[in-house]
Design brief:
The protein has about 450 residues and is mainly alpha-helical. It is about 85% helix and about 0% strand. It folds into 2 domains: about 15-230, no CATH class; about 250-455, no CATH class. The radius of gyration is 22 Å and the shape is globular. The N and C termini lie far apart (about 55 Å).
Length: about 450
Amino acid sequence: MNDMTSAFTRKFRGSGLMARVLRSASWVLIGYGGSQVVRLAANLILTRLLFPEAFGLMALVSVVTIGLELFSDVGIGPSIAQNARGDDPDFLDTAWTIQVIRGFGLWLCACLLAWPVAQFYGEADLALFLPIAGISLVVAGFNPTRIETANRHLLVGRLTVLDMTSQVIGVVSMVGLALATGSVLALVVGGVIQALAKLILTHVFLPGHINHFRWEKQAAKELIRFGKWIFLSTAFWFVTSQGDRAILGKFLSLEALGIYNIGFFLGSFPVMLGHTVSQRVLIPVYRDRPVRASAENRAQQRKLRFALTSGALGLLLIMAFSGPWLAAFLYDDRYLSSGPMVTLIACSLIPAVIGMTYDQAALAAGDSRSLFVFSAIRAVVQVTLLLVGVNAFGLIGVIAAMGLAGFLVHPARIWLALRHGVWDPLHDLGFGVMGAALAASAIWLHWGAIARLAAGQ
């Protein structure tokens, strides 16, 4: 037993790539797990202090602010992660300068969009809340590139602690403001405070290069060349990740949208965790251990891929089987309908989990154009199905559309993986069959609650 423990411990030691991968993945799991615990605790408190409509309104605010971030993402993080000059101060300062300019541009866009968005959704409060929420985009623009440098070298322990600390500060602010005001404004202002906390903490406590305003033409050219396809890819990713709430905001009441948002939080967190770990861990692995270089690299990548998919899919299926019971345990009667939503959302995201480890290979190779093509296909298919689903079957149709879209676009994801030699058919087939069987079992188990949800739309 001691020999096994020592062997396991040795894998985490040293400065080798796999040791750093294991340490980084562990910190990401700790950080994301802790983040979700804090977020859940905040949810439990805030759902008792505020009303369901508040979470629906905040969902619409998030759709716009996240949309602005994604529609203007020029790939600063992936650029630093994959570029040979990712540790060059001139390159980092140029990237930071672009990031700061972008932050002010995003806030201006939030101000300009506030009134049209308020009119589109018929919610006058959005005209006030969006410019306030947009301040967090300005603040985030000043975040140091030391964050991305830590991710580049898989040294994320201190960064994880700082992220969690800033989140706790934001949550405490939200709860305090909610107690004082009883208004959704508490959620908006709390988000700005959290962004400020992260900026201050990372500037003070994260070691590395201190950024200054600088514009080096060659660095800017490299960043823009790589980032132009990231820009287009993330614009389509917004459609994929936020399209359901953007569409449902027009078809559902704020109360129903707020309950859906809570259900989505519980049902989707394993996928978000999987994507976070994959992004932090796999780009360095694909970059430094290319699969075509040796059979050993291919074997290591397969082990890592199976481990990531197993963990994320296992958590997803736990949420699918426990959805209604979990909602009944955590929330009061106003939020009980989120339970069957958790089951359906978790089942619909199984295709996304199975393919989540392939996308980073393109970024590691600097092939942001192929990633854009895949993102475009995924967005067009999903939006088409979402619109058909919501018109034909309402909320249930939207959730089913997400799952069907994930299944239909998987061949495009295989194409992307084949371009970089990382497709693993055994992985996809095995997890696909297992995921489909267990998802069917979860839906059968909770069919009564799902039928009541469908009848009560």
